[in-house]
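Translate structure to sequence.
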């Protein structure tokens, strides 16, 4: 019964001060929406950067055999390092996957059309390493293709569209290097913001064994490999260099002989940068919410001053300090919780209608459970502090003095 009476009194108090209640609630709504949206956009942006970076391949290392820059064991500098399949087999142990890549540009013919195409000869694992996911109904080159030197080809999605238009490419035959190749798959469209020899959407991929048989190529243009875990990448890079340096007699400390692009370093940088960036957004949003909390505290102080006589009468009639404290705290928390819920719903609505066209650049804003919990926790703390001190002052009033004011 006491709770019901208190809620009725609370409702009358809020209804009697509509403008003040609205302005108080608006500050909390604005602050809650601000921090939720900033954190949501930060999280969406982080995920989009990772998606864009993973278009090249996730946590892979790309090695480019080049020229030695340090004399070693009586051999001069400037020697070209030539890596073949036997070398790759030697360093394969301990890796999640490794593939050499043979690359060149050839004329591809289909019906009356002829166009130059960048073609890569690779192992089957290359598709997994480089995130070359086939569209439904197709596949990447497989182990049997590599073993039997099959003349099969996997096309980038833009290249397939340029060659075949709206016709289904899988199963069709194209001419490459004077030989017929069967299209076994087409790349599923992906976002790729970096590359080392052109975007995958414009390239074609064939089994490495087929490439070597038709072109006579013996040495790879580059190596792609991946460790079983990101923490093992540095050690495996050193192992690869050590093995190849032993076979080709170059100084393992020679950074030019086998140049490496370690994408794991980029992913680590992104994670570190985005953690700091999201922390900054969270601080900015928190300050906005704190400003709203200060507004609530100021308004509650005004409320206490205006209702000093009423408080004095209640205390003279037997109301205890604790009940006065709880009354004002309940009023503050009710406004805070209700306004915070509206702010979260507003932020969620903005995220839901965010234009698709911008998502490729800034990602899709998402109010994740962690964002919701962080916002709710901060909101509760600010609401408590904003209401506690005015409520404490009200509960400590002298009834005799209060009734005279």
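Result:
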């Amino acid at each position: 019964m006491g709770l019901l009476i208190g809620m009725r009194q609370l409702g009358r108090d809020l209804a009697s001060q509509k403008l003040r209640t609205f302005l108080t609630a608006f500050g909390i709504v604005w602050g809650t929406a601000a921090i939720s949206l900033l954190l949501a956009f930060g999280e969406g942006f982080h995920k989009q950067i990772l998606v864009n970076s993973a278009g090249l391949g996730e946590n892979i290392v790309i090695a480019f055999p080049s020229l030695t820059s340090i004399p070693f064991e009586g051999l001069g500098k400037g020697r070209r390092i030539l890596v073949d399949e036997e070398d790759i087999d030697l360093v394969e142990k301990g890796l999640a996957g490794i593939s050499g890549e043979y690359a060149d540009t050839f004329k591809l013919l289909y019906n009356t059309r002829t166009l130059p195409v960048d073609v890569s000869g690779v192992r089957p694992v290359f598709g997994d390493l480089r995130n070359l996911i086939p569209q439904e109904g197709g596949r990447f080159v497989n182990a049997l293709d590599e073993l039997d030197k099959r003349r099969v080809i996997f096309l980038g999605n833009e290249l397939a569209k340029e060659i075949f238009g709206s016709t289904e490419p899988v199963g069709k035959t194209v001419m490459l290097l004077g030989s017929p190749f069967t299209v076994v798959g087409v790349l599923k469209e992906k976002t790729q913001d970096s590359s080392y020899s052109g975007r995958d959407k414009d390239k074609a991929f064939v089994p490495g064994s087929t490439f070597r048989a038709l072109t006579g190529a013996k040495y790879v243009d580059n190596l792609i490999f991946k460790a079983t875990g990101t923490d093992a990448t540095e050690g495996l890079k050193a192992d690869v260099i050590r093995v190849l340096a032993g076979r080709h007699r170059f100084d393992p400390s020679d950074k030019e002989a086998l140049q490496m692009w370690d994408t794991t370093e980029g992913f680590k940088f992104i994670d570190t940068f985005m953690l700091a960036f999201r922390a900054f957004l969270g601080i900015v949003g928190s300050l906005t919410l704190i400003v709203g909390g200060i507004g609530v505290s100021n308004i509650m102080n005004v409320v206490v001053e205006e209702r000093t006589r009423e408080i004095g009468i209640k205390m003279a009639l037997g109301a205890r300090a604790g009940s006065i404290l709880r009354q004002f705290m309940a009023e503050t928390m009710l406004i805070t919780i209700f306004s915070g819920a509206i702010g979260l719903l507003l932020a969620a609505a903005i995220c839901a209608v965010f234009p698709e066209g911008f998502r490729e650049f800034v990602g899709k804003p998402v109010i994740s459970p962690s964002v919701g919990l962080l916002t709710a926790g901060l909101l509760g703390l600010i609401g408590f502090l904003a209401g506690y001190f005015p409520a404490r002052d009200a509960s400590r009033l002298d009834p005799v003095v209060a009734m005279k004011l």
